[in-house]
């Protein structure tokens, strides 16, 4: 979004990533809606508004979803339960300008199962990765405010490789076709956050990068060489005929967040227990820093703890075992990551 891919292309350096123009899919929700409309991609009914009264007039029923147009680290989305909440959210976004100076998207609240599906794109084709399911709210049972993601798991019951390919053909490929026709071909990772409604899939959002924490649950299962695949995407012929290989194991990722997250994350708390995590469990640093020899918190989402297992119960148990030996003041984590997968596969 900052034009790095453009600069590298100008220097004749191969780059797997979208141009600034193509990256507007994530940088502007209003733009993404316009692209979806042009491409015939299903999404929630919506209206783009620029002032509070216009926003309130656009709401047909509650609860409703109010989204800041620009980047907001996963926090510029409010599910307003009533008129008062909607008014507060619109004022925060349009008058206080907490998330930038752009407009606001007011859209219907969709019901169903959420699904994250990432695809590798070469400007002409979209090849789906394994699906994942993530958890956006801060608290168990999807309570509390939205976050950048509190955990994820892969695979997803009921979404096999054939179904993932169908979704990619319905969601990702039309967007790639539309952007190519518009003169802004998309090369890189196209992340689609979907709601599987009774009326079919609907797009909640697009990201133009590996989703976090979905990537931590998806990529450990990839058995194809990732670097070879990414290099192939930027070479002549692109991803034509690509068939990715996947480990049948389950992966569960649990996010450890700092005190006060997401509203006012605290930094500087010492982290202990990292040396006691089982070697088979992967810990990815997200918001950490060194203070002398001590690792401390330095952001909202601090660590991602990922484990693989032959079934969701095994992977889930190992991930939580790793998460529980790590400690810092005010540590937050959800206890229901992959619980649905566990219940469905019993």
What does this protein look like?
27% of the residues lie in helices and 27% in strands. The chain is α+β, with helices and mostly antiparallel strands and 346 residues long. The longest helix has 14 residues, at 312-325. The mean pLDDT is 95.
- Please identify the top-level CATH class of the largest domain: Alpha Beta
Q: Can you tell me the CATH architecture of the largest domain? A: 2-Layer Sandwich
N→C terminal distance = 43 Å
Shape: globular
Strand content: 25-35%
Helices, by number, come to: 11
Provide the domain count: 3
Low-confidence stretches: none
Give the averaged pLDDT, no decimals. 95
Query: Element order, helices and strands?
Result: HHHEHEEHEEEEEEEHHEEHHEEEEEHH
Q: What integer value in Å does the Rg equal?
A: 20 Å
Biggest sheet descriptor = 5 strands, antiparallel
């Amino acid at each position: 979004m900052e034009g790095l891919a453009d600069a590298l292309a100008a220097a004749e350096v191969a780059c797997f990533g979208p141009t600034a123009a193509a990256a507007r899919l994530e940088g502007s929700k209003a733009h993404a809606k316009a692209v979806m409309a042009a491409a015939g991609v299903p999404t929630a009914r919506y209206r783009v508004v620029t002032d509070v009264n216009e926003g309130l007039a656009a709401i047909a029923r509650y609860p409703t979803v109010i989204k800041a147009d620009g980047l907001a680290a996963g926090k510029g989305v409010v599910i307003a339960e009533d008129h008062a909440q909607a008014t507060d959210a619109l004022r925060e976004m349009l008058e206080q300008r907490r998330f930038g100076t752009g407009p606001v998207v007011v859209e219907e609240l969709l019901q169903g199962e959420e699904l994250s599906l990432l695809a590798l794109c070469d400007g002409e084709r979209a090849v789906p990765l394994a699906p994942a399911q993530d958890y956006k709210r801060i608290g168990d049972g999807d309570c509390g405010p939205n976050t950048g993601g509190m955990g994820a798991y892969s695979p997803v019951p009921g979404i096999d490789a054939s179904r993932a390919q169908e979704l990619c053909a319905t969601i990702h490929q039309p967007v790639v076709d539309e952007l190519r026709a518009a003169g802004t071909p998309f090369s890189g990772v196209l992340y689609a956050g979907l709601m599987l409604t009774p009326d079919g899939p609907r797009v909640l959002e697009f990201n133009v990068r590996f989703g976090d924490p979905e990537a931590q649950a998806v990529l450990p299962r990839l058995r194809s060489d990732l670097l070879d695949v990414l290099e192939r995407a930027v070479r002549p012929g692109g991803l034509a005929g690509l068939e990715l290989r996947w480990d049948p194991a389950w992966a569960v990722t649990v996010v450890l967040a700092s005190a006060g997250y997401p509203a006012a994350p605290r930094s500087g708390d010492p982290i202990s227990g990292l040396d006691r995590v089982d070697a088979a469990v992967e810990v990815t640093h997200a918001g950490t820093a060194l203070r002398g020899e001590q690792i401390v918190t330095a952001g909202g989402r601090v660590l991602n703890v990922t484990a693989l297992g032959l079934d969701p119960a095994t992977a889930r148990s190992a991930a939580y075992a790793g998460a529980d030996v790590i400690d810092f003041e005010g540590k937050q984590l959800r206890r229901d990551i992959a619980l649905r997968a566990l219940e469905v596969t019993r």
